[in-house]
Amino acid sequence: MEACPTYSMLAELQGNLEVQEEGPGKVLKMVSQSEDVIQTRPNRLVPHCSQSLDCNLNGHVGPLQKRTAKALITGGGGYFGYQLGCALASEEINVVLFDRHKPRWEIPNQAVFFEGDVRDYDAVFKACEGVDCVFHVASYGISGFEQLQRKELIESINVGGTKVIIEVCQQRNISRLVYTSSVNVVFGGNPIEEGDEETVPYFPLEKHTDHYSRTKAIADQMVLAADGTPLEGGDKLHTCVIRPPGIYGPEEQRHLPRIVTNIQRQLFNFAFWSPNTLMNWVHVGNLVQGHILASESLTAERGYIASGQAYYIHDGESVIFSEWITPLFEKLGYKKPRKHVPVLFLRTIAGLLEYLHLLLKPVFSFTPLITRNEIRNLRVTHTFRIDKARKQLGYYPKKFTLADTVDHYLKSRSSC
What we know:
Strand content: 15-25%
Number of strands: 15
Shape: globular
CATH topology: Rossmann fold
Distance between the termini: 25 Å
Low-confidence stretches: 1-47, 54-60
Number of helices: 14
Structural class: alpha/beta
CATH architecture: 3-Layer(aba) Sandwich
CATH superfamily: NAD(P)-binding Rossmann-like Domain
């Protein structure tokens, strides 16, 4: 992997922000480091990833920087939302990281944290003061424990929260909205090879087997339908959606630690995946690049080329999952499982684990080893083309490897 520069604004924090209650929303108060608000390990915050991300935008960030005075990122306390915020802040764009929980990393200069819920109209409205562009990243229910939560909870965040975001954009005269969707809006278990945005339709909502995919598909369509909505002052709301596959990268906390733990517990003694399953993955640095280029392409300078459009964004290659994940087993000192069991047996075991999770949830909560939906994703080929993003956005993915991410994970774990 190419060496990449560190975000300079993260070298030393010169000021931090404290969120204080004031009425229905939140206000931000600037404080100095001596007030002990955003520190590093003593306050359980960790420095920004030492394996820097290469978010080189190939010279495309110029018009964005001139136009965007302030951007808001929902889900800004999560892994991808935070990385996106750091990239924007490094270009001297003011950033609001909007989330229910603070990031576990240091807040960079040019960014503020605003505590709030995407379902809370008043909080979102207040946070969006002076904002020119919204990146709607927040979602719920993607995998593991979250995937098995109540339908109403997942829908209230993914659909209800998106409705609030669109309404606030209209009320605040925010002209650009970039939505982080998912390939799952079109993938529901049927093989897809080299699918594109124009020929692969949405998977029927009533056939989705998990609430996350169904609600993401609804939100995806809501955002695209909002494109062209008139705003006060004569402008229009310009929207687009980014559809990534699985995300990986340094300090990713959702998938890699869970897999590593299960490997070390020797719970992966047989393969859940099909040996020939093809899929795409996206490194967080490439996903950041795709989002920023998309936001720029919603401007007059780019002829609003992305307005009302959907884009698949990934690393630019299709990989056999059983080969792609090999470095993880090797670097942990384990042999990759070669025993494959019938898919019906796997689904039965996963179904039992899901049932136990629901049965025991009132007294004991645990994350199932794997869910039926995750088995489906690992056993059915689903790959997509990024030609449209290349042509319209100028998206050129950098080369990253899972091995580099695993190395970083092991080094960071040993240093804790």
